[in-house]
Amino acid sequence: MIGLQQQIKESADYIRQFGQQAPVTGIILGSGLGNLAKEIDNPKEIPYGDIPHFPVSTVEGHHGKLILGTIKGKPVVAMAGRFHYYEGFSMQMVTFPVRVMKELGISTLLVSNAAGGMNAAFNVGDLMIITDHINLQPEHPLRGKNENTLGPRFPDMSEPYAKTLVAKAKSIAAQNNIPVHTGVYVGVQGPTFETRAEYKFMHIIGGDAVGMSTVPEVIVAAHAGLRVFAMSVITDLGIREEENTITHQEVLEAANAAEPKLTLIFRELIAQL
């Protein structure tokens, strides 16, 4: 069985056949947030199933293809659909595409997700810029033997989300009259939505929004020395008085409604990188 570094190289070598320029920015699109891909000029689409060693997403709202092209003239590589630990993948597989995008040449990673709101100031459809996270997932993506060529054994996590990118995004939002929140994202395993008590617990420990992705990818990005910007669409409210029933379809609908605002911020942020 070949090692992780060889798998990364073989995946990247295959992908390079489809692109003219090495991408400088990687993008991961969350549930219901795949339409940013339509902003990519001269797109080259590669189904995940065609890429050596890539897993294939099984979740509705995750299209399952890698897209190469440009946004605002900047070369990008975008994941339309991501992988989750709850699907049965190992954390190494969940985060494998981040390793491959780094190998392709990116220096910045932009991440989007659909999340449940736990802050009383949040409403469905709001946008939250992630400024920090709390990792409650049961498996760490860096567990096991460390490959020093990929990153240090004990990476610093004091600034997993680049403050410079947060400031740029807030400025873009203000210029376009888009209200945004900032807050802490709690990463959990899923696939169940949280109980009322769990939402309250996660809010007490410092969380503003909760979801089943993002944290593993961000940890690996930090390990690889990438700058990261991440944004959540608040697709449901976990702390509320009325009945707390949530469906995945409702999450997708809320994400789709908020997507144009997120797309504008991502597009203009890429232009400034």
Give me the secondary-structure category. Answer: alpha/beta
Q: Rough shape? A: globular
The main β sheet shows up as:
5 strands, mixed, barrel
CATH class call: Alpha Beta
Number of domains: 1
Rounded to the nearest angstrom, the radius of gyration is 17 Å
Helix content: 25-40%
Strand content: 15-25%
- Unreliable stretches covering 5 or more consecutive residues: none
- Please write the string of helix (H) and strand (E) elements: HEEEEHEEHEHEHEH
Distance between the termini: 38 Å
- The largest sheet has its strands arranged as 5-8-7-6-9
CATH superfamily: Nucleoside phosphorylase domain
CATH architecture: 3-Layer(aba) Sandwich
Strand count: 9
If helices are DSSP runs of H or I spanning 4 or more residues, what is the number of helices? 6
Mean pLDDT figure: 90
- Determine the CATH topology: Rossmann fold
Keywords:
alpha/beta; Rossmann fold; 9 strands; globular
Fold and architecture overview:
30% of the residues lie in helices and 24% in strands. Helix 3 links the parallel strand 6 and strand 7. The termini are far apart. It has one domain: Nucleoside phosphorylase domain (Rossmann fold). Helix 1 crosses helix 2 and helix 3 packs across helix 6. A five-stranded mixed beta barrel has the order 5-8-7-6-9, surrounded by four helices. It is an alpha/beta fold and 273 residues long.
